[in-house]
Structure formats: C-alpha cells, structure tokens
Amino acid sequence: MEISEIIKYLSDSKEIIGLGLWAVTFVVYAENGLFFAFFLPGDYLLFLTGVFVGTGFLKYTIATVLLYLFVAAVLGSLTGFLFGRFFGSTLENRPDRWYFKKKHIESTHDFFEKYGNQALIISRFLPYIRTFAPILAGISKMNYPKYLFLNVSGATLWVGSLVGGGYFFGVQFPWIINYVHYVILFFLAITTFTVIKGYLNIKKS
C-alpha cells in the first residue's frame, strides 16, 4: 500500500471507528502527541464516535468510551510533552518532510505567545496546534504539575464535549447516522475557517 493510501485510510474516521474502540483510542493518543500524526482526524472522530455509540452501532457504554478516550488524550499529550522536553531541539532543527512541517511548530509558538498557558486547553480544539502544543510546552520546560493540570483539564473538556455531544445527537436523532459525510464536512469547514483565521491574525500581528 502506498503512503498516500495509508494516510487517506487513517484519515477516514468511519474506517477507524469500524475497527473498534481500540483503533479510535490509538488515533486519539497519536494525534495528541506524536508529531508525525498531526494529519489524523481528531474533533470529528470524537464526535462521530459519540454518534455511533448513541445509535448503537458501536457496542460500548458511553462511560467506557469516555474513559478510554480521556486516558488516550492525556497520555498522548504527556508523550508529546516528554518528547519536547528531551528531544525538542532535534525536532526544531529537523528539515521539512511529508510527515513534519516546521511551520506547525512556528504557528504553535505564536499561539502560545498570544494565549499563554491557556493555549494548552484551547489548542485541544484546533488541528495541528493540538499535536504540537504539548511538544512546545516540553521544549519550554513548563512546570510539570502545571502542565499536568492543564493537560487533564483540556482533555476533559475536549473529550467530554465532543463525545458527549455526539452521543446526545445519536440518542435523540438516530437518523443522523445516515448523514455522517455531512457531519465530517461541517467539522472540516469549521477547522478550515479556524486555521485560516488564525493564520491571518498571526500574519497581521
């Protein structure tokens, strides 16, 4: 299988959810802290997982799903933090590759400059920034207890709101399962708008 085909498959949230909760858990873990996994779906994967649980297509209790994905988000970001703390300088000097873009580090740095420590919580809801924020926190040698608090707080809000929201829609409006593609397009539109707006604000400043 070509690399482009692997990336396309891993970016398909329906395919990932179809593999089961362990696959979703791994993707959430990777996207939250492994710099080469920034392209993986995050927001709409969580939302659709909640929808699939609410409609009964994913045979797990909502409590189990929330626990797995919360732990994955916390451990993923912790991995990124520790990587940044011990190997950050290597990453900053790494040339661009298909799996790594230095511009993501730079935009994350600007994001930290604007929002400070709160960036670790806000970044949970932003693609790319979500992956590189823990790494940058590690590079800057952020106080560990403070980082752990922000990490847990951000994971709670991110997983709780998106999975919980998806579950609510799945239970109340089970027909939404027939419009999964529109849900993905909706999240992609929000993501694209957020990234472009952030880029323009940074460029302006």
From TrEMBL:
<feature type="transmembrane region" description="Helical">
    <location>
        <begin position="148"/>
        <end position="170"/>
    </location>
</feature>
<protein>
    <submittedName>
        <fullName>Membrane-associated protein</fullName>
    </submittedName>
</protein>
<keyword id="KW-1133">Transmembrane helix</keyword>
<feature type="domain" description="VTT">
    <location>
        <begin position="40"/>
        <end position="167"/>
    </location>
</feature>
<feature type="transmembrane region" description="Helical">
    <location>
        <begin position="176"/>
        <end position="200"/>
    </location>
</feature>
<dbReference type="InterPro" id="IPR032816">
    <property type="entry name" value="VTT_dom"/>
</dbReference>
<dbReference type="GO" id="GO:0005886">
    <property type="term" value="C:plasma membrane"/>
</dbReference>
<dbReference type="Pfam" id="PF09335">
    <property type="entry name" value="VTT_dom"/>
</dbReference>
<keyword id="KW-1003">Cell membrane</keyword>
<keyword id="KW-0812">Transmembrane</keyword>
<feature type="transmembrane region" description="Helical">
    <location>
        <begin position="60"/>
        <end position="84"/>
    </location>
</feature>
<keyword id="KW-0472">Membrane</keyword>
<feature type="transmembrane region" description="Helical">
    <location>
        <begin position="16"/>
        <end position="40"/>
    </location>
</feature>
<comment type="similarity">
    <text>Belongs to the DedA family.</text>
</comment>
<dbReference type="InterPro" id="IPR032818">
    <property type="entry name" value="DedA-like"/>
</dbReference>
